[in-house]
Amino acid sequence: YLPVEQWKAPFFGPLSSDGRPVLGALVPVEPAGQLYRRAWQRVREGDGPRFEELKVSRARTRRR
Question: Stretch 44-58: mean pLDDT, rounded?
Answer without folding.
Answer: 84
